[in-house]
Amino acid sequence: MADEEGAAVSVDDLAYDALLEWIADEVAPYVGEGRVADYIPALAQVSPDRFGLALATVDGRLYGVGDYRERFSLQSISKVYSLALVMARDDGRLRGRVGVEPSGNAFNSLIQLEYERGIPRNPFINAGALVVTDLLHTLTGDAAGAVLDFLRSEADDHTVTIDGAVAASEAEHGDLNLALAHFMAAYGNIENPVDVAADHYFRHCSIAMSCAETALATLFLARHGVRADGSRLLPVLGAKRVNALMMTCGAYDAAGEFAFRVGLPAKSGVGGGIVAVVPGRAALCVWSPGLDQHGNSVAGVEALDRFTTATGWSVF
Amino acid sequence: MADEEGAAVSVDDLAYDALLEWIADEVAPYVGEGRVADYIPALAQVSPDRFGLALATVDGRLYGVGDYRERFSLQSISKVYSLALVMARDDGRLRGRVGVEPSGNAFNSLIQLEYERGIPRNPFINAGALVVTDLLHTLTGDAAGAVLDFLRSEADDHTVTIDGAVAASEAEHGDLNLALAHFMAAYGNIENPVDVAADHYFRHCSIAMSCAETALATLFLARHGVRADGSRLLPVLGAKRVNALMMTCGAYDAAGEFAFRVGLPAKSGVGGGIVAVVPGRAALCVWSPGLDQHGNSVAGVEALDRFTTATGWSVF
Amino acid sequence: MADEEGAAVSVDDLAYDALLEWIADEVAPYVGEGRVADYIPALAQVSPDRFGLALATVDGRLYGVGDYRERFSLQSISKVYSLALVMARDDGRLRGRVGVEPSGNAFNSLIQLEYERGIPRNPFINAGALVVTDLLHTLTGDAAGAVLDFLRSEADDHTVTIDGAVAASEAEHGDLNLALAHFMAAYGNIENPVDVAADHYFRHCSIAMSCAETALATLFLARHGVRADGSRLLPVLGAKRVNALMMTCGAYDAAGEFAFRVGLPAKSGVGGGIVAVVPGRAALCVWSPGLDQHGNSVAGVEALDRFTTATGWSVF
Amino acid sequence: MADEEGAAVSVDDLAYDALLEWIADEVAPYVGEGRVADYIPALAQVSPDRFGLALATVDGRLYGVGDYRERFSLQSISKVYSLALVMARDDGRLRGRVGVEPSGNAFNSLIQLEYERGIPRNPFINAGALVVTDLLHTLTGDAAGAVLDFLRSEADDHTVTIDGAVAASEAEHGDLNLALAHFMAAYGNIENPVDVAADHYFRHCSIAMSCAETALATLFLARHGVRADGSRLLPVLGAKRVNALMMTCGAYDAAGEFAFRVGLPAKSGVGGGIVAVVPGRAALCVWSPGLDQHGNSVAGVEALDRFTTATGWSVF
């Protein structure tokens, strides 16, 4: 593996399967650590001892270890795809309604909205993702359906679906997101009825996919915007921008720490998943339900840290 | 140049000089735009029509265009070097005293310090750089001297010096920084006398260097921690971390926008300079005194945007 | 009238009618100044040239000038009565759910709720009044009805009613209040369904009364808790507490300025009304629709300022 | 004493000495509770079991109980006198530099200064008192001396003095106040050198007086502006305004709670003293060093609560 004082080992020399096995061994002590998301019953039931890791390369190979075929709830990871789908359709309209700056910290979520008159700081905080979903709904007539169709297509598996129990549970415990949505509506930044926008948001966050499927579905960002079928979803600059947003805003209030340790564009979800992009090379997805205080998978962060340290594939 | 819909042009095909000339032509309309920093007289006197751009590659070549040999005031760019010098000496001690997260926005500078009991959010906001300077002073006995020595050595020019008029002017108009320093001292996070720490901070920010010198002095971050003389300043992971911090926190309150447009680790200063790192390849420095509302050089951002778009050398 | 340098003129010497006429003359230049509330159409239609002032004394006399018999929308003034009705029934339960401190300024409304985990700072900011209404609804089964019944009884006029057009308009433009209510519900501080609590809040704010009726209905606070029929609504300490809250929190973000100028417990509403209490002596209500930047009636504040300066009846 | 459900007992019927004795008995269990201010050694040495209470009436009588002749450190109580002295000299100039609104809570002190560009919210928060002291220094050439002279004269005791040990200790631990002062200086709201303004502030806060002396020195506010020698310091409206500020901003972040419980204009200090005004009738000073979480004397608040409940002398 890489020598901290020396140059990174060439990845050409690595057997990927062996690498993933080594990572799984290394992070085994962390699996089960942290706290499984329990704000809705459907998520709280997931066993904390799960761990899966999948690597999909731009030349079409897929590697995996552990529970990498088991589906989990995407949660905030789905915000990457709704964002990409909106940018593909009407990037300009989005720019006026959502910023691109890191949010500082959790504490600032509402003050920021108030201070900046209803314009969320970036598309990955909940307020921003609600606006993205609202605009995607306006553009497609079915925001959650558009995200689902895209993911089914990229993962090449039409059994991918929305977990209805999770979606219902999100809606039932959705006061905080409804507060954000009503607040933005007061400033004219939600154009569909608040309950419609929120419903589509809750639903695309409740899509269940495996690490393997999620890595495959995220390859378009490693391919600079090109989908699995070879068609282009985003221009090169558009893919660069999504990656940049993932780097600066993708790990909740710990984006700086994540960039500092892992150094890849990534997006985490409270379901315990983290998807990461190695531009030009690969996409990874890791899953383990125990979360740290910021909402990022404990074992997941450890795994990605080891991955970039071993391969030298950090963008820095 | 690069086709937005296609792959980036190979940089191997580019004549660097021609590339820099093209960029200088492209951004000429932006030179003179924005507002020259005027909070101290010494900076306000600089002519707004200056523009320089230098590129230093890890294999030792240096390219430049425009006023790339003219010295300007580093200002916040110097925070990169004081940080690296502290990390090289006592990284652990620094971690407890300064965070690594983006600060959200200017508005939050003091509330954040208050909310987090005197721990600055990252080493590039003024409060964080004051703590870094304070620790560097403890570790070396002469913080400003340590930064100056390092820069002279890397730039291979012992005429690099602190502009005494700028430093005196900073001290005279330093109430805001003194407020930050006293506030942190109240929480025990400044260990030297406040006026000593502030003085060394004002002085290393007042170092004057040219684009050529600054690009050379920043190459150690492109070389994953290795200095001009081949010795190692930082471990590979240390250099990665400085780069990550530059990416997430280097452009004041516009770090997200900068990552979004340019996609390189970078640090700007209100003297109009911006230094950027292409890990493994090169360091760039651009200078033009007109600043946008966030304090970043207008023509400088335009130049770096064109550079990464043309070369595809963004990390994303 | 009072000599600023000397003692206040004894009110025994004043003919109240002459005093009110003098005040009306004095403030005539201010009537029409400011901006009529226009966030809902029903309020925007009110003519800005209205001015009424009524004084009700604890010994049963009523004086008035101008449009003091014309009904206007109570808006936030109704928060005084819902608060008193809850304190009369279950003061202890209220104390755990709403604070008694001034809110600082408008800017802090949401940050405060977030920082203090869903506990509104006082019962007169919208968030606090929503909690009061929610609790009144739990205690009575009909919060808006309870407020209406109380006001009809105290004003001795059973034609007092809820303006249905205003209430409907409030609900239609109620996103900000729904945001606050959902946010508090997320912290468990709204116990009825959010839309039910909000509906009763919108309705009691939409009660229409005249200055004469409002002054009469507020006399219980001047009588230290005793209602028009001689029965006690609140203990002496309870009435003192409502008066104290009106003094420190009754004039939106200008409570300090109001105390500074007028020096009486008071509550204003964006309908242009202000009710004030002279403990032990009288209650006043003034109405003029033009509002200052804080939402307080311009001519209303001027009138109350002159009233306390002339009579020396400020509590200070 | 007063019956909560009935009218207050007439104070004419009370023997004041008996009343004060009764209060001292009632609050004895609270004496020693709370925490003695320990941010500077000089204050930390005071015995927590002290309790004194003095009442001075406008007709010239003085009553006391317990340690009412023992001197303690005025601390923030001195802000009342520096404010009155500035208002007497140049009220208009003060209005542009300090607000009159409650500050919300401690948390907001710096954000408020930042948000409102260096204008403190009111004259009783430290930032505001620093501006008042700065202006008093400009107007008199010796701010601390002006406060001391005034207090000696009103208390009729020329042995009242500044405790040099406390003042030195304040200066040594003054980083937070220096931070505030430099921050305001950055916005042009401190006109003397920061260290001069801060030094005079530290010194007038370090004046030591007894409850008896403090009650006498505060009678000018009960006399609507008239000093002990019959001369007028402030116009009637000026005294009313100081009283109003004490009511809305006098008890740190618990001004609302204090108004709610006690209902008198008052100012507390971390030395354990609280001075209160009964307009037209009397001034009180209570002292007991144990502080609650807001910095107000635990036994002191209890004593004033009982005083107003028993006498019915609350302004509400």
From TrEMBL, chains A, B, C, D:
Entry binding sites for substrate: S76, N126, E170, N177, Y201, Y252, V270
Annotated EC: 3.5.1.2
InterPro entries registered for this protein in UniProt: Beta-lactam/transpept-like (IPR012338), Glutaminase (IPR015868)
The organism's place on the tree of life at top rank: Bacteria
Catalytic reaction(s) noted: L-glutamine + H2O = L-glutamate + NH4(+)
Keywords: Acetylation, Hydrolase
Quaternary structure annotation from Swiss-Prot or TrEMBL: Homotetramer.
Family according to the record: Belongs to the glutaminase family.
NCBIfam families noted in UniProt: Gln_ase (TIGR03814), PRK00971.1-2 (NF002133)
Protein name: Glutaminase
